[in-house]
Structure formats: structure tokens, C-alpha cells
Amino acid sequence: MATRETSSTASPAGHSKNPTVSELQQRQNDYLTLRRNVALGMLVVAPALIALPPRKLDLFTFGLGFTWVFCLNEVMKPSGTDIFHALAGRPQKAADATAAEEENKLGGWKGTPVFEQFRQKEEEGKGIGEMITESVWEVWQQRDKRNLTPEQEEEEDLPLAERFKKYEAEKKKKEQMKRDAIGSVTERK
Hints:
Layout: H1 21-51, H2 59-76, H3 83-87, H4 92-106, H5 112-123, H6 128-141, H7 150-157, H8 160-188
Helix pairs in contact: 1-2
């Protein structure tokens, strides 16, 4: 017959169902210590495994290299530095200050102007499909990068069929002007 101590549903020895705050803190400290020790060990083991024969550059080597960088970052965390910022030549605190400075220059969230623009279009009665289509069309046309006259902008806003008709009319007009110019030259001879 199974007793409470031998039952598979019994809690492990020494652990109550509801751990106290001090027990939880002790477990967390043990976990962080284990994590740091494993990272320190991998800082030695990963390069050693890379150096063992066969020495070849493959996915395993890149995985060990990534593991080494990750473990180095883990070891550097308690000092308040991030390996990626240290490799870039600027400390973490300087990077945070730079990010805060850029945010202050922009006045908060970078998407605010876009959000306001979409809110205006929504108030005009346009649906989300129309707004997306207009945004894609503006990007496709690269209107921000080109310097267009107001006439050119108006022409671009015309539907494609109307622009094609206008283009054909201008083409016919130019051909007629060429014929007239050729005709006047032949008449002079």
C-alpha cells in the first residue's frame, strides 16, 4: 500500500507546497550562480572545442562562437555592460543616453505623425483598405524623394486611363508638329 511518502504525487523531500519568500530568493540566487558558472565554463570550453580537430568552419563552429559571445555577455551583465555595446566602442549608459536624447528630439514615439495622418483620413471617411493603398502608392511613386511641380503632381493623381489618353494626345500633337516642320522645310526647297 502506498503511503504519503512513497506516493508519486507527494512533494519532493524538503520542499513545501508554498515556498516562503526567503526560499524563493535562495532558489533565484542559486539559479543565477549556476547560470554564471556555466557561462564561465563555456567561455573556456567553446574555444577549446573549436580548436580541436577537425578544424573546419561549419555550422557547429558558428554555433560555438555564438555560444561564446552569449556567455561572455552573460558574464558581463552584472557589471552593467552589454557585450554588443562594448564591441561597438560605447558603454551601455552612453547608448541609453543617446537613445533618450534622440527620443526627446523626435518628441516621443516615432509613429505619432503617421498615426495622426491615418486618424485624419479615417475622419474623412476613408477605409483602411484605401489608406493602405494610398500609402503603398506614395512609396511606389517615391513622392518624398522627387521634386515635382504642382502640375506634375496633379497629373500623377489622375487615373491611369486618363493619363494614358493625355499621353497619347501629346504624342499625336508632337508627331503633327514634326510633320508640319518637315513640310515647311520641304516647301522652302
